[in-house]
From TrEMBL, chains A, B:
Residues 199-302 form the Fe-containing alcohol dehydrogenase-like C-terminal domain. Residues 15-186 form the Alcohol dehydrogenase iron-type/glycerol dehydrogenase GldA domain. It comes from Thiorhodovibrio frisius. Keywords: Oxidoreductase. This is Alcohol dehydrogenase, class IV.
Length: 368, 368
């Protein structure tokens, strides 16, 4: 278990959070405070989903000198090249660093804001910081405004990026990647498409059952994971998962699930899901759900519960992706999965390669 | 419910925490970092219980210019006059503000460190800041090292002090009162007396059942409270509450219980307990347990569970304190209890005075 044994856990919390329906009204106040303390404008990263939501954008009180960048979250996940492009553009436009960066959207948008905030103060390219504790100095002050709940990006110390050159899907794992403030307004996910709301929300559930089933355990990670699962069961196994009360509970589950992941490891689902994202370009939260097609032997209780949740909420999970893959694609999927040594060790022990043979991995992907 | 309705919750987290057996080794590292960044020495507030624990004190790597103050936690709880005295002494001895303050001990010691840290930068007297959001500027950078778990003082935005002049037991409720760092080392409570360990630990249980039974509820407070109760049941209803695993779980329960209280209110037990502390000088955690003698009609399930926990762990809760009180003492107890309008409203609604008549309150105290 050596690669998991990190000994004492040193955890950086988000310094503040606001929570409650209408909490978005706090954002202009927080930013006014930042504007008074530091020079520079504000850069907003907003999910393209809200491009035409003028009423919502008006509530942000964006100033003339601020930058508003819509993040193309639907087509693709953050990439190192994409982040480098945004940073180069911003450097061309800004005469000084912004006083704050806002990431308003789902996991991709929040991760984009985190990565850009780190690069603006640290210099270099995004891939220079893929790994653990490579970020040298604090990033720009940053505020998360999740509009979809589940990934926990608002609470974690990473921002996941795909690197096209080496095929690696890996984040800037650093205390400096943690948001300074989080605005949790359960009104914001109300307009999300139901399937997207489910796929994203269930990421919190998957994170936490993987953590609790793992070899590496600790008291605080377990506590956060247990309560996250409890909240997810309330949201997805009761009536409408998108009621006001359930939107708020899922927002809390996402935040606590993020806190859980900060002190634990995921298991089998996430490495396979990463394989699907890297090789086939399937977005993270949907990819997790596809992996669940094949998880019955590995997580039997959670497999049953997951499919009950999907059925209860009337969400269809696509199937058939693994049917017509070429041998080269299976090989690429195998490699992109097996590179995730830490979660695989957490799930199966240090001899995970003896269990996850190429045949076994191919068989798992073929069931999706 | 108006006095409870605070709308959107703005919550300040402790910026960092370390957790794990042996985490105390992190403290000298954190302080070395502070010493490098800021001028001034370090002031350590340490529970008098450790006065003769030279081995432990050696591990702190205290420097010659630092101040070490033992807090007389056994005799009395923090008072406004006591805090003012410490601040005056420090001002006389220090030529500049310290670069960090450490509070190592139970709730009294951690609260003393918080209050002194605020006063050294804000000036004035402790009683000037008893209330809500009266602290104007950040205090000295402060680090909590709990050696007893339960009160949640390491996580909350208050530091409770008794004011002898007006009989009020009230804290400096402020975001600036929140610790910057917390070192959670479950080895530290191993030497605590069993009864003290129980009295203090059960404070987390009582906080959270009061919050969950209250009128004022919210999704994140509820989540923290539920998991705190879950952890307390594991600690106090299974075998030895002081095993290494249970010490760590109780440390997590205390931290999460503190996070719960930051977004919710206590109920009936704490106002009565405050009455016992103010009028009869009984320490907070023991006072809570005495109040539980009379809580059967108010919290029947938790009453039953509390006494089962005490019995299971072989802890004796004193009785008879309410037997020989004078009418003047009963009157003083009534007043010192009823002053706590927020928790009493949370427990019983805005017409709590119609329920808690002087006769009813006297009857409750007489059962202790």
């Amino acid at each position: 278990m050596n690669i998991l044994e990190t000994g004492i856990k040193n955890v950086r919390n988000a310094t503040r959070y606001s929570i409650g329906a209408g909490a978005l009204a706090d954002l202009p106040k927080v930013l006014a405070n930042r504007r008074a303390q530091a020079t520079g404008s504000v850069v907003y990263f907003i999910d393209e989903f809200f491009r035409t939501s003028q009423q919502l954008i008006d509530r942000l009180a964006i100033q003339p000198a601020d930058q508003l960048i819509f993040v193309a979250s639907k087509k693709e996940e953050p990439s190192t090249d994409g982040i480098d492009g945004i940073v180069a553009d911003l450097r061309g436009q800004l005469t000084q660093n912004p006083c704050a960066i806002v990431g308003m959207g789902g996991g991709s948008t929040m991760d984009t804001a985190k990565a850009v905030a780190n690069l603006l103060t640290n210099g270099g390219r995004a891939e220079d910081y893929q790994g653990w504790d490579l970020v040298k100095v604090p990033g720009i002050y940053k505020i998360a405004v999740p509009t979809l709940s589940g990934t926990g990006a608002e609470a974690t110390r990473t921002c996941v990026m795909t690197n096209a050159r080496n095929g690696l899907k890996l984040g800037m794992n650093s205390d400096y990647t943690v948001y300074d403030e989080i605005v949790l307004d359960p009104d914001l996910p109300a307009s999300a498409p139901r399937d997207q709301y489910f796929y994203t929300g269930i990421d919190a559930y998957i994170h936490c059952f993987e953590a609790l089933a793992g070899h590496y355990r600790n008291a605080i990670g377990d506590a956060f994971s247990r309560e996250t699962l409890n909240l997810c069961r309330q949201v997805f196994l009761q009536e409408d998962m998108m009621s006001a009360a359930h939107r708020e509970q899922l927002m809390v589950a996402s935040y606590l699930g993020g806190c859980a992941i900060a002190t634990s490891y995921v298991g089998l689902v996430h490495p396979f899901s990463a394989g699907l994202s890297v090789v086939l370009g399937i977005r993270h939260c949907l990819a997790n759900c596809l992996v669940m097609h094949a998880m019955e032997p590995w997580y039997p209780r959670e497999y049953e519960e997951f499919w009950r949740m999907a059925e209860h909420q009337g969400i269809e999970i696509p199937t058939g992706i693994g049917r017509d893959l070429t041998p080269d694609q299976y090989q690429a999927l195998y490699e992109a999965t097996m590179i995730h040594e830490k979660p695989l060790t957490n799930a199966l022990g240090e001899h995970f390669r003896d269990i996850l043979t190429p045949e076994c991995v191919t068989n798992i992907f073929s069931q999706m």
